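Intended use. Records like the one below are meant for learning the mapping from a protein sequence to its folded structure. Do not use them to infer anything beyond what is encoded.
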Amino acid sequence: MIRIRLRVVVVGIPGVGKTTVVESTASAWKNSRLVTFGTVMLEEGLRLKWIRHRDQLRKMRVEEQTKLQRIAARKISAMKESVLFVDTHLFIRTPEGFWPGLPFHVVTALKPTHLVLIEADSEVVLSRRTRDPTRYRDRVNKEELESELLLARSFLTTASSISGAPMMMLRNEEGRVEETVQRLIDVLREARP
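Structure written out for the chain above:
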């Protein structure tokens, strides 16, 4: 029997419930590990004294973010778990514009077996963002948010093309996270013999 390693990269714009979905999925999957790409970048940024908190990451110059991104990609790619879930972003809104969270050097280092985009309606995302007092979010209107949701699909397609990993989009409707998690688990179980 062939032993398949799963490297599942779960992405989505802020407020779609990506972290909730991936945390619940990793909890339900035995012997898996969840790593948050931004946390690895944060740890390095704090160690280097470039930042003081997570939301400063996206305000850094892109050149500095890229350095932290490369370090994080190398650290995560060295992890040996047979099932690894990576919580990250397809792009980050920076003062210089949208910056890819999965550029060529990251997606080739991570070697994903699956790319999963978590989506939700723009009204739901706006509501979730305003209810989250723990983050310093950029204010965007509904039209900007809908553009971000479309942009996410474009970035996902590019990451899938580069990595050769299949991509899927999962709707995370308000109050139905368990269903979203179950759909993801069902797909991943099919990938393992």
